[in-house]
Amino acid sequence: VLAEAPDSFEALRLRGDILLDNLDDWKAAAADYDRAAALNPDSAATLVKRGQAYVKGARYDGAVKDFTAAILMSPENDGAVAGLGGARMLRGEYKEALEQYERASGLAPKNGEYYFMAGNACRKLKRLKSANNYFKKACDLGFKTACGFIKK
């Protein structure tokens, strides 16, 4: 795809994914996702990936915008919802982040990472009992990082 049609939607998405996930070049990835989004403006997945690139580049306002747009296109997209939670968390909007992580865990109840992140948001909000409950749930689901955060 990259060699045959380098400016196609698929090629731009693939190149963006490689740049973001393997080469850690968020700027170049975001540029490819920009071009892909122009070719297919209804692709929630492209907005999620560009939002992830913006998070890596500490461009949180752009990330919030992209994750929100992706959610409007695809309300059941747990990755977009969790991404919005992460961007809100990084902006210090812990209550809003918690709301998104709770929503994401409702959409993907077996994803322990979402419960772990909800626990982190609760810690920031000084809701330590709730944080502990989220960490326990994440640990029970196999998200091992959370196990070390459980207070006995």
Briefly note the structural class of the backbone: mainly alpha
Helix content: over 70%
Which sheet architecture does the biggest sheet show?
Answer: none
Number of strands: 0
Global Rg:
17 Å
Summarize the helix and strand pattern as letters: HHHHHHHHH
Instruction: Estimate the global geometry from the Cα principal axes.
Output: elongated
The low-confidence parts are: none
Structure annotation, total helices: 9
Question: Could you tell me how far the N terminus lies from the C terminus, measured between alpha carbons in angstroms?
Answer: 53 Å
Topology:
Layout: H1 9-21, H2 26-39, H3 44-56, H4 60-73, H5 78-90, H6 94-107, H7 112-124, H8 128-140, H9 144-147
Word description of this protein:
This protein has 152 residues and is mainly α. It contains nine helices and no strands. The protein has helices at residues 9-21, 26-39, 44-56, 60-73, 78-90, 94-107, 112-124, 128-140, 144-147. It is elongated.
